């Protein structure tokens, strides 16, 4: 008698499982890594991604690329997540982490096909990761943070290493100095939102500048603005969250009238309330009035007649940064404007930068904030410059908090590879082969650096293996001479935290993909969760 067939899953659901599922997941991760493979290193290429609506992004940043690829494959999405986490945690090394994870999987694909249990591989990989991290901590070079000159030198070199693989690598000296100056202006917590980045089209990259204070684009202004002075020395600054417009009072109250005379008295009261507010501001000795809400034409003209400057509709972030730099407090009333709630700065001026006018506050007493004004030709170019500088800023922040560095350019990967290979030979069983596979996977970084620069990768890797076997710990790829070099001496430096984070994230992602042996795709249900399926949930790699 035939067993009745039991249908457990909804119609249209796809389920795939077993060894073939693990192998297909590994293949999907390879495809993602191939998308960013050629962006690695100083000779890396950029990717142009066209999105819907005609938006075009040109980028070299691994996290940005995988984010924009709109990946559908469920297993490949883990690579997107680790690239994002690397970007959030450290800021740089996003391409490295994606490629490492894919290569770790690629190295064990053959063992999965030969029926080695994925959990055995996962255990070995976890052990190898721990060994590698311990080794990084052991050999990382500590830097003396007490000596300010040495610290600045270290930060500049780390920023310069980060920028050497970006679009702005030609101006890396100029920008790495600018980034270090910017980060050192912040307070001990190094808040990222205290570095304002403004983009102005036109001009050359070298026209970019760092303002030790706050700069923001001139806000929308009313009649009377032309009469206002454009430069003040040692002004008092009032930061407000008040609407200085006539209609403001009407909105805040409900008034019922039964004859025309009463209406006139309401209009008069409205004017007198506004003038009273303006008078308070004038009497407080304020020279610059900034408000988050609009400042109307009556107020603008009033300020112009009394030699005061005003700007309404200032964004919250810019207002906060002005507060941080110039001191004072944001007021929601104009009563009681004492000196301690007003900000100060050495100089306020309005300046033409490119096609825009900017308000600049410089010489602030407690300048714990700064503004980078970026210039450049095309919009995409300036945006990529901003992404590059974001990576450099994050690296400098991380280096200040963690004062140990390792050599970049594939040097640390080759050293870890040699260390793990030597260790694997001291143990027996499957672990020996699997830790050896981890060691081989690490070589993908120097290999890809060579491939992207058009070098003979096999030749250079052989030289590197030989050098590391002889104890040349910091030897890596020398892009300029098509050879190998001591990258610690060549000042190709990276914070050790970048490598530790990259290794941990890549290994975790690889273990996660390996431990999945079944994927069930539910068809898209209707909005309320019931009803017939609307289609089969088939994924595609991209």
Task: Please give a structural write-up.
By secondary structure, the protein is of the alpha+beta class. Helix content is 46%, strand content 16%. Strands 9, 10, 11, 12 and 13 form a five-stranded mixed sheet that branches. Strands 7-15-14-8 form a four-stranded antiparallel sheet. α10 links the parallel β10 and β11. The C terminus is likely disordered.
What's this, in brief?
This protein has 542 residues and is an alpha+beta fold. The protein has helices spanning 19-36, 62-68, 77-89, 94-113, 118-139, 148-163, 172-184, 247-252, 260-283, 297-305, 316-326, 379-401, 411-424, 430-442, 444-453, 457-469, 496-514; strands at 14-17, 47-50, 56-59, 141-142, 195-201, 209-211, 213-217, 231-233, 236-240, 288-291, 309-311, 330-331, 343-344, 347-353, 356-362, 370-376, 404-407, 475-478, 483-486, 493-495, 518-521. The strands form 7 sheets. Strands 9, 10, 11, 12 and 13 form a 5-stranded mixed β-sheet that branches.
Architecture blueprint of SSEs:
Elements: E1 14-17, H1 19-36, E2 47-50, E3 56-59, H2 62-68, H3 77-89, H4 94-113, H5 118-139, E4 141-142, H6 148-163, H7 172-184, E5 195-201, E6 209-211, E7 213-217, E8 231-233, E9 236-240, H8 247-252, H9 260-283, E10 288-291, H10 297-305, E11 309-311, H11 316-326, E12 330-331, E13 343-344, E14 347-353, E15 356-362, E16 370-376, H12 379-401, E17 404-407, H13 411-424, H14 430-442, H15 444-453, H16 457-469, E18 475-478, E19 483-486, E20 493-495, H17 496-514, E21 518-521
Parallel strand pairs: 5-16, 9-10, 9-12, 10-11
Antiparallel strand pairs: 1-21, 2-3, 4-17, 6-16, 7-15, 8-14, 9-13, 14-15, 17-20, 18-19
């Amino acid at each position: 008698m035939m067993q009745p067939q039991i249908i457990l899953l909804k119609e249209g659901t796809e389920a795939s499982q077993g060894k073939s599922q693990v192998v297909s997941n590994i293949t999907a991760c390879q495809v993602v890594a191939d998308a960013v493979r050629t962006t690695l290193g100083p000779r890396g290429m950029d990717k142009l991604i066209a999105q819907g609506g005609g938006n075009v992004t040109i980028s070299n940043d691994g996290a940005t690329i995988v984010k924009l690829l709109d990946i559908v494959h469920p297993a490949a999405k883990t690579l997107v997540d680790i690239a994002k986490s690397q970007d959030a945690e450290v800021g740089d090394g996003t391409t490295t982490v994606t490629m490492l994870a894919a290569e770790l999987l690629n190295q064990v694909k053959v063992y999965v096909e030969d029926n080695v249990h994925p959990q055995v591989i996962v255990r070995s990989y976890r052990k190898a990761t721990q060994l590698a991290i311990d080794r990084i901590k052991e050999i990382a070079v500590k830097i003396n943070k007490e000596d300010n000159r040495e610290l600045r030198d270290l930060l500049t070199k780390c920023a310069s290493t980060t920028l050497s693989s970006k679009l702005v690598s030609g101006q890396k000296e100029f920008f790495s100095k600018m980034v270090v100056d910017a980060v050192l202006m912040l307070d001990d917590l190094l808040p990222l939102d205290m570095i304002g980045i403004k983009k102005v089209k036109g001009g050359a990259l070298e026209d970019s500048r760092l303002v030790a204070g706050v700069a923001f684009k001139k806000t929308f202004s009313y009649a009377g603005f032309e009469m206002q002075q454009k430069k003040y020395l040692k002004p008092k600054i009032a930061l407000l969250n008040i609407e200085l417009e006539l209609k403001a009072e009407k909105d805040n109250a409900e008034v019922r009238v039964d004859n025309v005379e009463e209406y006139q008295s309401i209009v008069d009261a409205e004017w007198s309330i506004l003038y009273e507010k303006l008078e308070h501001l004038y009497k407080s000795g304020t020279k610059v009035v900034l408000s988050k809400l609009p400042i109307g034409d009556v107020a603008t003209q009033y300020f112009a007649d009394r030699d005061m400057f005003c700007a309404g509709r200032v964004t919250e972030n810019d207002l906060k940064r002005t507060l941080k730099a110039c001191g004072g407090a944001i007021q929601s009333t104009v009563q009681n404007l004492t000196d301690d709630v007003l900000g100060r700065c050495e100089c306020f001026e309005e300046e033409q930068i490119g096609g825009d006018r900017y308000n600049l506050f410089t010489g602030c007493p407690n300048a714990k904030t700064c503004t980078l004004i970026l210039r450049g030709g095309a919009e995409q170019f300036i945006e990529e410059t901003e992404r590059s500088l974001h990576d450099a800023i994050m690296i400098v922040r991380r280096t200040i908090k963690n004062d140990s560095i390792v050599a970049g350019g594939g040097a640390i990967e080759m050293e870890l590879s040699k260390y793990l290979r030597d260790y694997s030979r001291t143990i027996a069983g499957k672990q020996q082969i699997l830790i050896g596979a981890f060691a081989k996977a690490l070589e993908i970084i120097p290999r890809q650096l060579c491939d992207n620069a058009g070098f003979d990768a096999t030749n250079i890797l052989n030289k590197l293996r030989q050098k590391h076997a002889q104890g040349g710990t910091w030897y890596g790829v020398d892009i300029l001479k098509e050879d190998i070099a001591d990258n610690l001496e060549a000042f190709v430096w990276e914070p050790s935290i970048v490598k530790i984070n990259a290794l941990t994230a890549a290994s975790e992602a690889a273990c996660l993909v390996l431990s999945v042996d079944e994927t069930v795709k539910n068809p898209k249900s209707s909005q309320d969760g019931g009803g017939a399926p609307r289609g089969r949930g088939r994924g595609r790699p991209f």
